[in-house]
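B., you asked whether I could sanity-check this one before it goes into the benchmark set. Here's the sequence:
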Amino acid sequence: MRWCCIFLIFWVAAAKAQPDTSRHESFSDVRGHYIKRYPDHFWIWPVVKSRSLDFKAQNVDTDEQTKFKPNGRTALGAGFYLFEIAAEIAFSIPESQESIDQFGESQVRDLQVNAIGKFWGLDVYWQRYRGFYLDDAGGASDFSKRADIHSSNLGVSGFYAFNRSKFSLRSSYNFSERQLHSGGSWMLIGTVNSFTLAADSVVGDVGSEFLSMRYTTFGLAPGYSYNLIIKKFFVNGTFGLGPAHNWLRVKDGQGDESNNISISSISVVRVGLGYNSDRFFGGVAFSIQSRNLRLEDTRFTNSTSIVKIMAGYRFREVGILKKRAVDLFRHHR
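And here's what the prediction gave me:
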């Protein structure tokens, strides 16, 4: 919790340090001073991303923990922003035989759809993983493999930024805008998530052992996001922490099922940096969303994380490319 407090204090200080504009300026004037749009351009970009679904069980008394990760998480693809719609597709890169021998083989299905407006964002995702390895902090070269463990993760996350005039979500997320001056915003982050984990033999060598687990989480987290602008370079930091309500069903090692309700927490962290000019743009970003719950003597955490590297170029629109998606839809009606 100490690092959470330090992080919050940093972003609160950054928020108070933002320059203020005249109260007599209109919303469009203030936003035009801070945010630059590109309504007459389209752009394309290659992308490399690594997305993962990890889970961890930690004994609250002894601090012993077991952490499982899947193998095969890197994907290569491309994206475009056209007709004021952003889309991105990526395909998994096959793992080498050496990697399979060391970490095991994972079957991965990962689908994500997101939309980002001026002040809001929405992320719908579905993940299915089969085959995990035990991430041993001792630095072993041959990891314990659990090909029988399979998990699925279905959910929707959303966020809303309250600073509508001096802060741009799009500038650091999908580069459809460019923030010209440093600024940040308080945010409200919400998530509804259903996570399922099952195996042929028990999972959890510390504390409570189980054969399967399923829980649905509803959480709301206040947060803050800040864009530090240095000429055409930027650094973005986003942090959110809040309570969550969990509906839990567990099948223990003897096959007995039980239902429970618990109050826990969710956390969201995103760090990104990059370059954003009128033509070229690019950057690297890391984000992680974690959900925690207590199961007897064990604290269970599952995390969805993504590392993304991208670079692109903006082109001026010509002909039909000047249309918006809604214009094309109206034309065909």
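One thing to flag: Residues 44-332 form a domain with the Lipocalin fold (CATH 2.40.128). Otherwise nothing jumped out at me.
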